[in-house]
Amino acid sequence: MALFEQTIDQHSDFLGTLRHRFLDEDRKTALEAFALKGFPTKKDEEYKYTNLKEITEKNYNFFPTEEHHISREQLDALHLGEENFDRIVFINGKLHKEFSKISIGNAEFLSFNYALNDPAHKEVFDKYFNTIANKDLAFTNLNSAYCKFGFFLRVPKNVVIEKPIHVFYLSQNQEENTFYNTRNLLIVEEGAKVEIIESHHNLDESFVLTNSVTEIFTFQNAKTDWHKLQNDNDTSYLVDHTFAKQERDSLTTVNTFTFGGKLVRNNLDFIHNGENINSFMNGITIIGKDQLVDHHTAVHHNTPNCESYQNYKGIYKDKSHGVFNGKVFVNKIAQKTNAYQQNNNILLDEGASIDTKPQLEIFADDVKCSHGCTVGQLNEDAMFYLRARGISKKEARALLLYAFANDAMQNIDIEPLKVKVSKLLAEKLEVSMEF
Q: What are the transmembrane regions (predicted)?
């Protein structure tokens, strides 16, 4: 039975496992919306270059086994040298406090499932949950129908969370292919600040499909940084939708570093709801073999005097395939908008490919908007320059590629994360960090 039929057949069983009844009707409505359209195919413009058949024709277990055999040493190996960070560890969908380190006492943190079960949070969920997630999308509806795993975090007014928070989603000890619908809700109130690192890890040989939806609300004068570190194995699929709504004078950054996973689809929507907003989106993708990574971004400039910056770099080896579709929408009242979008790519092998499509839709007349994309190979003159100075071909190649990708890391404020990304870059480029 393919995934579509499974989602319909297992929903009643899924509802029977839950205690948060106030969402039952919303879940049924979301499932009906999903069933009406089904999974997107290559006939859909948004999935024109991304074939999901490999994902959707497999069978999955919707009820992962909670038992695991993960050791502290295995978890430590995934860290960023982050002894002073807070960390939140989900294993097979369940929050494990014995592996977590949570010192954010001046903020409100709960597992998503617990928050749904707590009547005290019904008002908050009614106000924020599923209000900016696009209800026309198959995967967001599927997530709304089945979501259970993930976290809820509310940072109160003027509270600055000093330590970055690393959220781990681990899957292990699953005998069957497993399907996770992960949901995160982050509310950063006026004048508050928080930094999140998110990573997913499948530790089994069976396949894992993660359908993740995150809603971020950044209020006036607040700052939110969300870093996605995607370095999973070849038996993992990730479809991620992140929606970020910003109020006046706020700053939100989403960095996406993709080095692993069989198929990764990142969807990122920024929604401006006030003046003097700044939005930053940066991405680095380095993949090989037959991996596919698809970045779809959209910035909705709805108000005047706001800025957005998109900078995505891709390096593709072997028979890998990249997709970038970046959209900027400028409303007719959004005068004085400054929007920058750039996508640069290098193809290292003849079998590698990239489909890139930057888009601007501008209805205001006093704006500064630019977009561009490049697809090419390494600069032969630069290679010759380095080789003439005694640098081996392999090291010269790696130096140029490292420099090419490096500027997309410049706004990482977390030094251990910057070091980790640099090391992953070096690993993927097969070169020592000593250069």
A: none
* Both tokens assigned to 274: 């006030």
User: Which is nearest to 142 in space by CA: 231, 36, 57, 270?
Assistant: 36
Looking at residue 18, its pLDDT comes to 60
CA dist 183 and 90 (Å) reads: 12
Residue 134, Cβ neighbours under 10 Å: how many? 15
Using CA atoms, how far apart are residues 234 and 291, in angstroms rounded to an integer?
Answer: 8
pLDDT per position as a tens digit, 200-228: 999 999 999 999 999 999 999 999 999 99
State residue 435's pLDDT score.
Answer: 41
pTM: 0.94
Per residue in 277-332, pLDDT (tens digit) is: 999 999 999 999 999 999 999 999 999 999 999 999 999 999 999 999 999 999 99
* Residue 420 CB coordination number (10 Å): 22
Sites in the chain below the pLDDT cut of 50: 1, 433-435
